[in-house]
């Protein structure tokens, strides 16, 4: 009798592996959605009950498998790829106040199958049943979990195992993505089986080198945000790089606190450091999260977490938070099945990320990846004062010089639909 | 019989002096306009038939005379205060495609009586019947005509003769306004009668010093518009200041043309140098005017003319041009009564302004005005690469240092309706 029972269950499980993660329809989604969506958990450490949440959107195409696969990670450390990447930036739908989803005409799934991953645990719907897992989080554990996620995800979606794979992300994903790429190349080298077809990585407004990426006083000055005096203070007393490193080591000097306070005073409460020209949403929840915090809580690495992602409609944050905390939405997403102790948030509140990871210089790893023939795209928004475009450009130039790369096109505006987006 | 005829005519003329310039209603204007509008010509040189066109909007207030009087001039040299200042920027109405006027909730006439002046002749509806008048135009003739305009205008509107007077303008009005202010102070000194109550001047994105105001390579670089290489070329080979001065003296060097070409290539045809983040209007007329010109026609001082005024809706230019060329609109404005040979344009095509005026350094005059107790407000849009905010700030600092001015407030965002406009 036992055997008779076991076989049907096993075959049911196998049958379910990818298909039972299919999203029938997201609440409020528009009619005539022509592509499939999947979401759910991938166990990366079964003994600990450590599980990462993903949202997978197939390419909007007659034959999705003819398109590449892109894994997307948002920065932080500790911010949600589901909230920022998928529902605010480049996923297929964006929630509106009434709970309806509207189509995003710039969705990346018009060109690629999009895999949004909540990583590490503590981010969004990702979690562990072992509370000590939350304590030791750092770049190494994150990269390892992301690698395990990818391998296990391919088990559930074997049809994508041979797809061209792109890794992309923004801000602190400048750490996550190159480190994951490195593990993938190691995996391909170690195992003689089919390689994972990693084609390229793309990093937006990335934190790459704490000595370069965050230097922002000249940028703020040239954008009218700070005074000559504060520019001078930043050049002579404490720049954003020193401030970041002091924050990492939890030994903030009086000088740095003084300069930061001056700078924040001049920027004011209604200027988003991640998007200088963005109007501010007066929603009390958003203001509560980003602005009404004491100076000592506003460590730079926390600011990094609230990345430059809040595009166009600054109040969309509220709509997304509300949407993703709706029980019916969570049900349709196969999310929060273990009933997490806190609500879904854009940036994980109880995440304890080891700060020394933040100080790692990623440039040598980019160099290594380039030498191993992985193309690296660096892109940068022009209104972000946390990782200014000038700094990403300096790093691109350093790499080009070191590796003797030569331009294959001339510096020019990047036009989308005939409009200049000032990406050069 | 003659005498009998003459008296009624004279009295009619006297009666008309201000009232026959009343605008009954502008075609398409909204209902319930609670303030008066006037427009027409003021002869500044009757023998030559030299006449300047004005549009005067009383303050939107129960008692307009309780508000100050502001004279507004747009830059160029050669661009229209009616088209830019009044109908695009801060007048009470803005034309829409269907020829209707919509209310501008930010109209300056909510705070002041606004006098928009088309100056010098050749701008908009202003003209001279003596064609040689167009040849000798320069800062001195413009200031003199503007002064004569003001005195004659007060004859027609004697009720404003005692009003607090503010002078304001943008771009090349950085020349016009201080020079007019200087003549007003001289007039007050020379004539023992009632002084003209000049209270202050305000200059937006002003051309003040050709060595400072136009330097823009660092600004363009920090905004992602140009490459490192072109920044270097601008620093070492030819900067915008040298280019401007070479243009003035019509001896453009090969080096400067080379750097300008590089810069324009990288900026592309769809980026407005006067507003880097403005989407481009694809209207053929606008594109024809600003973009499809050969390099040699694109002298910097002509670029200055197309000032940063095209705010928000880049296609509004077309609507305004169409509106102001409508015969019924011209009739209601008492404009084009002499049937000018060309249509109304934003920037005067046949204006021949003496180029050496453009090279004048206005800073000493600002210093003189400040010493004579005329407050000077310098303000600057944050997206203008022709007169970048960084340059206006440098000039403000120079003046503050020279005159030992001290700040009476701290550097801070300027909030309008709760939104930061990044004006500091």
UniProtKB/TrEMBL annotation, chains A, B:
Q: Name one GO molecular function term.
A: serine-type carboxypeptidase activity
Enzyme Commission numbers on file: 3.4.16.-
Its GO biological process annotations read: proteolysis
Top-rank taxon:
Eukaryota
| Gene3D superfamilies, per database record | alpha/beta hydrolase (3.40.50.1820)
Which UniProt key words apply to this protein? Carboxypeptidase, Hydrolase, Protease, Secreted, Signal
Report the family membership. Belongs to the peptidase S10 family.
Entry-linked SUPFAM superfamilies: alpha/beta-Hydrolases
Question: Does Protease count among this protein's keywords?
Answer: yes
Q: Which InterPro entries match?
A: AB_hydrolase_fold (IPR029058), Peptidase_S10 (IPR001563), Ser_caboxypep_ser_AS (IPR018202)
**Organism per entry:** Gossypium mustelinum (Cotton)
**UniProt-listed PANTHER family:** CARBOXYPEPTIDASE, SERINE PROTEASE FAMILY S10 SERINE CARBOXYPEPTIDASE
**Protein localization:** Secreted
Name used for this protein in its record: Carboxypeptidase
Task: Give the residue range of the signal peptide.
Answer: 1-20
The record's GO CC annotations read: extracellular region; vacuole
Q: Which EC class, in a word?
A: hydrolase
Q: Indicate yes or no for the key word Nucleotide-binding.
A: no
